[in-house]
Write a structure and sequence with these properties.
Layout lengths: L2 E2 H7 L5 H9 L3 E3 L2 E2 L5 E2 L5 E3 L2 E2 L10 E6 L16 H5 L6 E3 L7 E7 L2 H8 L7 E7 L5 H9 L2 E2 L2 E2 L4 E4 L4 E6 L6 H8 L4 E9 L2 E2 L7 E3 L2 H11 L8
Parallel strand pairs: 9-15
Antiparallel strand pairs: 1-4, 2-3, 2-5, 5-6, 7-9, 7-17, 8-9, 10-14, 10-15, 11-12, 13-14, 15-16
Helix pairs in contact: 1-2
């Protein structure tokens, strides 16, 4: 059965569909020696290459789901040629995996890695409203106006952020729960209100909590996978 090339690369555990589309647009994907186009379909017998490397989809591939506590300075990319401090080289997992979404290089905390392209698409779709929790420290004391403004939405990147839960944890520290994933969203929100982020740590994604030391990873438990699948049951896999 023919499969779209971005789905093929995702199911092969090479990258997410979003990254696959970018590689295709850059002309780095070939099918039987010819440069692929977005939406091209492939069969199992087709010869698929990415940047000259043969990509084959294993019929018995085991799904891998990892929770990783990313240190500051590590870049969330599966393209090893982009950055020397990339997440894939740092973890050095024995089979091909890729990160689900991103954490900025200066940020730390929980990020998922997997070879399951479908779960990546479900988690990353903003309209699915999957919650992420962060602990943030700022350069100066927080006041009531700051908490209220962050909660009610801030104008960044030509749009107003969604209402969200924000709680003060200390003089310069707060907790925030987001269902959006705009580029550098928390940092931009704080900057627009005259604050600078000193540290930013993601401590939860949906039902998975950060419970491992910095720089370490663990597999999801069976209970976590069951609950994650339940939360994702009504999620869209399509791009917006």
């Amino acid at each position: 059965m023919a499969t779209r090339i971005n789905k093929y690369l995702s199911e092969a555990g090479y990258c997410s569909r979003r990254v696959a589309d970018r590689l295709i647009e850059e002309g780095k994907v070939t099918i039987n020696g010819e440069v692929s186009k977005i939406g091209t379909k492939v069969d199992e017998e087709d010869y698929v290459e990415v940047k000259g490397q043969r990509i084959e989809k294993s019929k018995k591939q085991k799904n891998v789901y990892l929770a990783f506590n990313k240190p500051v300075g590590i870049v969330c990319t599966s393209d090893k040629s982009v950055e020397p401090d990339n997440i894939i080289d740092f973890i050095n997992y024995p089979t091909r995996i890729f990160p689900v979404g991103r954490l900025d290089k200066p940020s730390e905390g929980l990020i998922f890695l997997t070879n399951d392209g479908d779960i990546v698409n479900k988690i990353l779709r903003a309209r699915n409203n999957h919650e992420k929790e962060y602990i943030v420290s700022l350069n100066r004391p927080i006041n009531r106006d700051f908490i209220q403004s962050m909660s009610n939405g801030v104008e960044i990147l030509g749009t107003k952020t969604k209402n969200c839960f924000v709680k003060k944890l200390g003089q310069k520290k707060f907790k925030i729960l987001l269902t959006q994933g705009l580029n550098r969203q928390i940092r931009r929100m704080c900057e627009s209100l005259g604050y600078r982020v000193i540290s930013l740590k993601r401590v939860r994604i949906m039902n998975i909590k950060l419970d491992i030391p910095t720089g370490k990873y663990r597999e999801f438990t069976g209970e976590e996978i069951l609950e994650l699948n339940r939360l994702l049951a009504k999620s869209s896999k399509t791009f917006e």
